[in-house]
# Entry
Amino acid sequence: MLQLGPVARREGDDIIEGALICPERLCQREHPIIDGIPVLLSNPASWLENQLPYVLRRTDLTPFTESILGDLAGPSTPFDRERGNNGIYAHAHWAASSPAYLNVFNAASALLTQPPQGLWADIGCSVGRGTFELARRTNQLVAGVDLNFSMLRVAEQIRRSGRARYGRRRVGLAFDFVDDPIPDFPVANVGFWCADVAMLPFAPATFDGALSLNMLDCVSAPLAHLCEMGRALKPGAEAILATPFDWAAGATEAAAWLGGHSQRYGHQGSSLEEFRRVLSPSCDAGVDTGLLIEAEADNVKWRLRTHERSHTEYDVYLARLRRKSA
Ligand SMILES: C[S@@+](CC[C@H](N)C(=O)[O-])C[C@H]1O[C@@H](n2cnc3c(N)ncnc32)[C@H](O)[C@@H]1O
# Structure
């Protein structure tokens, strides 16, 4: 169990900065709490190698200065990709007019046998809408977990300010600044954690339920993600997993894809059949995730806006999973 080390409160702010410290005598590793977000990774130094620019990113620039910097940095630079991606997900989660994310979230909720209760985790929470929606339903603390510090900071900023603020690409390098009030959520029940879904920093059997929406095909180790979700759930707990099986080598090396390759063998490379094989009662794929498929839904629309004239639409598959009892 990690111990809280010295903490500091920022002046005029409720943000806590500090560190959680591993009490193991030979470890004593410090896990920083940055902008109120604990970074709980087995190797925080290697995470920081690619996340440091996002951790250090200023968030107080005016849209005017951001726009000048965006033009100077140019297209497809880390700065352009970061604000483009944040804008895509913030729009999908928080757009004032029917955000696309809710279509998947509502389909996931409809698959549950009863409304969520107890302690839930939103695994791969991105900019946080699912975490807030779960907190509203459970009235208990919900843990939103993601590896992307920039997205987590958007989520945490929404929690603190009650407003969704982000740049949304209009076209090319032109962005519109959005500053919308968010609906009334119990923000005290929401916490965002920077952690790897393939190595969750929670004790076994912690959660009464979990969401994994549009995650499976985005992680480097899909099987480890499933095993970790199984480990973190209490026996008998339900989880909803949604995925469009949109594998990409940039996120997951092809050998780790569940299906989507090797069409000459069983299931002809079908991702859905491979997913069912992994979660079959007899663990046909040779890995016991601790989870079983109980119910399924398919072809739920998930539409992501990239700019004012471009959208990507996915047909998402959903499964209600149950943590085995023994
Ligand atoms: C396609 S987005 C889906 C986000 C959100 N669940 C939704 O449906 O809008 C995938 C998310 O997974 C996160 N992610 C990818 N690999 C991860 C990992 N190993 N651990 C934690 N989060 C990860 C990304 O940062 C991103 O926020």
Remarks:
- The radius of gyration is 20 Å.
